[in-house]
Amino acid sequence: MQAISTNTRKLTITDYLLATLLVLITLACIAPIWHTVAVSLSDKSAVEGGKVLFVPVDFTWNAYLKILDDAKFFRAFAVSLERVVLGAGIQFLLTVLMAYPLSMNSREFAGRNIYMWFIVFTMLFGGGLIPWYLVVKSLGMLNSIWALVIPGAVPVFNVILVMNFMRNLPKELKEAAYIDGSGPWHLLLRIYIPVAVPALATVTLFSIVAHWNDFFQGLILMSKPENYPLQTYIQQLVVQLDLNETDSDKLEQAAKLSNKSLNAAKIFVTIIPVLLVYPFLQRYFIHGITLGSVKE
Amino acid sequence: MRNRRFQFHYHLMMLPGIVVLCIFSIVPMLGGVIAFQDFNPGLGFFRSEWVGLDNFRYLFELRDSRTIFFNTVFIALMKMAAHLIVPLLFALMLHELRFGRLKRWIQTIVYLPHFLSWVILSGIVIQLLSSEGPINQLIVALGGQSIMFLGDNNWFPYVIVASDTWKEFGFETIIYLAALTGISPDLYEAAEVDGASRMRKLIHVTLPGIATTVVLLATLSLGNILNAGFDQIFNLYNPLVYASGDIIDTYVYRVGLLNIQYGLGTAVGLMKSVVSFLLIVMSYWMASRFANYRVF
Amino acid sequence: MKGKHKKIGLLMLACSLAFVSACNSNNSNSGSSAPSSASNSGESPSAQASGAGSETVDPLGKYAEPVTMTIGKAVPPDDKTLPEGDTVENNQFTRYFEEKLNLKFKAAWIAAQGDAYDQKLALSISSNDLPDAMVVSEKELKTMVKAGQLEDLTKVYEQYASPYLKQMYDATNGKAFKNATFDGKLMALPNLNVDEDPIKLLWVRQDWLDKLGLKPPQTVDELAAIAKAFIEQDPDGNGKPDTFGLLGDSDNTFGPLYSAYQAYPGMWLKDADGKVVYGTTTPQMKEALGKLSEMYAQGLLDKEYAIRKDTSELINGGRAGMFLFGGWSTGWGLYDSFKNDPKAVWKAYALPLDGSGQYNATLGPVSSLYFVVKKGYSNPEALVKYLNLYANVENDAEAMAKLINGVNAAYFPLRATFVEPNIVTNRLKAVKEALDGKIQPDQLRLDQKDVYDKVAANNADPGKDPGSWMYSTSYMVGGGALESPMNKVLGVFYSQTKSMELKWPALKKMEAEMITQIIMGRESLDAFDSFVAEWKKSGGDQITREIEEQLTE
Q1: Integer CA distances (angstroms), C394 to B49, C442, C446, in order
Q2: What is the pTM of this model?
Q3: pLDDT one-digit tens code per residue, B160-204
Q4: Which GO terms describe its biological process (chain B) (predicted)?
Q5: Tens digit of pLDDT for each residue in C447-473?
Q6: What structural domains does chain C harbor?
Q7: Residues A267, B120: C-beta atoms closer than 8 Å
Q8: Which residue among A277, B71, C198, C455 sits deepest, i.e. has the most Cβ atoms within 10 Å of its Cβ?
Q9: Predicted ipTM of the assembly
Q10: Touching A: which chains, 3+ CB pairs < 8 A?
């Protein structure tokens, strides 16, 4: 059955007002990014002098050229890439595997409530940094990609989100499948996953971004800077020049390092890959795929 | 009964995730015992001196205990509310937008501030709110007096909440958008057929459709009741606004500057966990009892 | 929300112990020390090698068999000065020690200088997973001593320290060792800070002074007048009222201004009666605050100084011409000011003077970093031997030639400032003599020649090479100001007492709030008196007593 498209209605003044409002808000969001880009394309001294706002001053590609020249940057990039692929992949797997049974009610799945409270509990409680670190260490994972990927393999928040989404799907889905003689795996793979795509796309995005953005785990779990993921590598480079520093040694080091233009470039460069991946996931939660109808 | 057959499979699906959680969440929790010890890394877990609730007592007996607790809860509550309402409104507005391409661009861009760290953003916020910044210039142009937002206890908490909301609303918008796609278009059709206006459709179809998601997010956000946002506040506060901006985490951080603090940090973490857990349990129970609804 | 709770561990660096660490506690993770100790026939495995072995005690002697030491290494993050093929574990510095002592280094972990290193260090200590030797600050030292993680170095210092090393430490009159000694035992070897580093100076745009026909301010009132002129008389000549008077920073560092009133906030001193007093609570402080609040009210200070986190933009952007929070080395941060405006000339002065016409310069602690050795390490004397050479590099022409050649000195395996206290003015003196032709450049000590080369290069073509400009400005301008006569004020106590652990954060908070509120006019000067009373009551008196006790020990 073809949906009656709401698009046949004429555009009203409300539509334009709404669009304007949203665009204004959007501009407010893009402003700092724009500023960062402008800084990255400006001459270092102009930036240090606070002269750059939204337009590059003394336009130069220097910052980006310097990045391309830096082998460490690419190595960190590769580490992050590996981490995202493995990490988001494993998280996706475990999210789906857990959200689906949890989306059943307690009649269909005895013990469901226990599992549910169990994972909520783990989301809220922890023993602190050191015991966690020691567990990872005792499993021999330190300084390997697995340390970045396995300990956080169950993203509980994501699991709950997807569980909730699945729980809200029409019961008819399940009923129809059972009548057809489907088993739980079949139901999961053939029906639930395709239908839950908006939620899955959302949490996949979160997974990817979380792995991509993390710097702290990269710092404490890797003992050699060669193994740092990208954000960890960049984090240590964003040094603020503090003229208040009493240790001349430290001040000298900071002065050599402090390059706001380069820092801005590095930050922007870490955003780019996410921007590239983003559209592919976006279409799933903007438009969605729902049963039997085509939207927009 | 098919349910019994399926049980085994459900348990199987849960297994890998539960194993990971046990190893990396439950086991480290045992180390939380530090909160009750005068922990000495040389003596370790078994031999460090037991001090009972001393670490907690310290937190409550500070001169500024009341202030920092109040600030923490005040700011955290406002953030919770803002993080619930603003993304919801924005998602609804975006949902209503009729310009498809624009919709996707807007949604992508508002997500970007999430990627900037507070180290970077604080510089931008400071400049924005300075006496020479655009906001004050606007105020003066309209005939008012320049306000030192970051130096005024009346404004500081709101600045914190507003800037944080601005940074993160794009993230939560995605969740709502995904939930919105889950609403069957048939419902909209039916409403259309019944002659419902845009507003009525919003109230009677859209909102109920995402109600479960809203409730879920609201409940889970209770987990952050004592997290006022260390990173952000640390980068933005100064002695002028200690009275309204000093939170538990920033205070504990300053204590940690003098000595490595084991027990105190873990005690604070434990306290946060317990409070969060209790609140979540309470809301779950209330929803269950009064609305006959299982939040998760 | 998700996983954020793990992040909380970050700021607390809370440590809990997993069951595993109990097994871990004394297991050396530095596997490499085990084989080497076996081959070091003469040395007994325990620390106190009281000549019990057949190897003679030779401070500078080479080990018969190679000894390996694992370290936690801080590296400069973006550094490109290592030649091709060299690594953190194998570079000119490590090779030098290997050649001289047969001492090899391995890195247990490597982290960038600064925050990253501190985090890793704290984690290492907390999980009881230590390299053989490290450089730590006082905070970590105390924790490690309490945890019994460190080797007692008293005997090995006695036996293995070279005369020169002992001389350097003795020159501090015991001050260096004070914080490194616990219960009469020397648990660490402290570094030696440059005396001159913490001294704050007045940095001012000389070209602005010249343009407005002003002289460097001898008194605080003159300084205020200059601030006023800078604001009102458009020294940057662009027709816009965009210039600042006196800049401040959010730490309320107006150092020399306080000193001009003989007020020393943040420092522990002895008053006229010989009693210990905290600088911020003295009546002189009240006077200084009065002046500062007056200046603020008149708009002479940066209105938003307490909020501004980045003053360098104003300085390098040519909008600010005067600040008091920089030391001699500020030159390293001023290059962009020159680049943006080649006519900008920054000068440093030991000004303003106090009522009796002298400049009071505040000093910092003699030591702030400590070389430590893990308990149970087979060769603690290796650290002493390392320091023997390390301390002597500047006096050893051969060492200098091999080591001071453009590669970042941060690659020394264990690195902390370890120099004569007045090295800046010493170098400056030598450089000036060479510039005047009194001595030949080649006769200079290598580290002095290094500075000379850079100054000469900058003189030849000012500003062309940023590094040379920075060196030149720091030494000639900043260092030059240090040559003025000064009354050096040394604190009596730079550490922590027992009560401070619990009470100091609250006291510090009170202090910061009070100072900022008074200066910015939100509280009247009377708030100072109530602060002092409250401060004393809330633990200040107790802490003062504890310090007095410690000093009489």
Answers
A1: 48, 15, 7
A2: 0.88
A3: 999 999 999 998 898 898 888 878 888 888 888 888 888 888 888
A4: transmembrane transport
A5: 888 899 999 999 999 888 988 999 999
A6: 28-189+369-411 (3.40.190.10), 201-362+490-552 (3.40.190.10), 423-484 (no CATH)
A7: yes
A8: B71
A9: 0.89
A10: B, C
